[in-house]
Amino acid sequence: MNMNADMLEMIRAFPEQVLEAIGIGRKAAITPADPETSHVMVCGMGGSAIAADFVAGFVRDHCRVPVLVNKRYDLPACVDQRSIAVLSSYSGNTEETLEAWERAGRAGARRIALSSAGELLRRAESNGLETVVLPSGWPSPRACLGYSLVLQLFILLKLGLIDDFFIEILETTVQQLSGSREEIESAASHLADLLQHQRIVLYAPDHLEPACLRFRQQLNENAKMLCWHHVIPEMNHNELVGWRDQQAGLAALFLRDREELPRIKARMELTREVVGHYAASSLEVYARGTSHLEKSIYLVHLLDYTSYYLAKLRGVDPVEVRVIDFLKAELLKEG
User: Fold this and answer.
1) How far apart are CA 181 and CA 192, in angstroms?
2) What is the dihedral of CA 253, 7, 116, 292, to 10 degrees?
3) Does residue 224 carry a catalytic annotation?
4) Do the beta carbons of residue 157 and residue 170 sit within 8 Å?
5) Catalytic position from the list 96, 209, 221, 294
6) Is-contact 166 69, C-beta < 8 A?
7) How far apart are CA 140 and CA 77, in angstroms?
8) Handedness of CA 125, 127, 132, 137 (dihedral sign)
9) Does the pLDDT at position 1 exceed 70?
10) CB neighbour class for 158 (10 Å; exposed up to 12, middle 13-18, buried from 19)
11) What is the rounded distance in angstroms from the CA atom of residue 303 to the CA atom of residue 43?
12) Angle formed at CA 4 by CA 50 and CA 22, multiple of 5 degrees
């Protein structure tokens, strides 16, 4: 990847990135899990963590042990000698992940590093521990979701905790994405036009929450927009009551699945009816595909494009994240 690549180029490269990751995953040298393994804990932040959110959902009905996601410096008490900790950081220098690496080691967990470079790989290699190395050179780690997502799935496969159900789905899905690029870009551009002057609230059925969270994060980083999200049915037990006044300038975007459970479908439609009385606009976007994995990948790609087009409409640089750079620099001063 060109170090000067713009965000549009990186988004367009997503299908090729997924295929490249499959090739890397097939060659990954990860030995099978001990039969006494109690769970897999994936530790990461940002794009690495959202990849783990997706993976945990995809394997929920396939994996013989729970896959948990940790987005903190510390670790829960359940991490011990029967745990496998996957430490994921594209740069290899994410401080929360490095701290989790050390804590996982002290707890006696088996550790696997997933990174392109940096301190995380150095520590793993110096201790003779397992690594999966990502391609380097991508200027925006959030654009590396394909690598992290696919290779976290392959780690579980190599551990013997899931079968290879996902490989054919991924290969077929990215072929479809590549063949529909112009259509997807056009749909994303149109959606951006509808959303550009509004603050966005996202709602989705609970199984699509990672896609919802990914879009929220892309709106934050690419389009420099504030946003929030919630999931149904939980939202029906609290946030729904907050829709009481007219909300000028607020757009409610519902991510939908044509195969929602009947009660979820009823809740989604009733929620949109209630919210529609107060929001400035109410929109729906339907996932495409037959599997959870295929639907999620489609939404990621469509909404990544949407965040890019919103950035352009707003006149902001979708790659720039100066405020995060500032925060990291200030933290370094604190020691």
Assistant:
1) 16
2) 30
3) no
4) no
5) 221
6) no
7) 33
8) negative
9) no
10) buried
11) 25
12) 45
- Tell me whether residue 239 is one of the annotated catalytic residues: no
Confidence of residue 3 (pLDDT cuts 50, 70, 90): very low
**Taking the model in full, what pTM does it have?**
0.95
Residue 77: alpha-carbon gap to chain centroid: 25
Tokens of 214: 């990914």
**Distance between CA atoms of residues 317 and 93, nearest Å:** 24
Q: Where would I find the H helices in 32-114?
A: 46-58, 95-106
The reply to whether 237 belongs to the active site is yes
Q: Which domains does the chain have, with CATH numbers?
A: 7-171 (3.40.50.10490), 180-314 (3.40.50.10490)
- Other beta carbons less than 10 A from residue 19's beta carbon: 16
In the set 182, 237, 330, 333, the catalytic residue is 237
Q: How confident is the model over 193-251, as pLDDT tens digits? A: 999 999 999 999 999 999 999 999 999 999 999 999 999 999 999 999 999 999 999 99
Cα–Cα distance between 94 and 88 in angstroms, integer?
9
**For the purposes of burial, counting CB atoms within 10 Å of the CB of 182, is it exposed (0-12), middle (13-18) or buried (19 or more)?**
exposed
- The H-assigned helical ranges of 163-204 are 165-179, 181-195
pLDDT digits (tens, 9 = 90+) for 62-97: 999 999 999 999 999 999 999 999 999 999 999 999
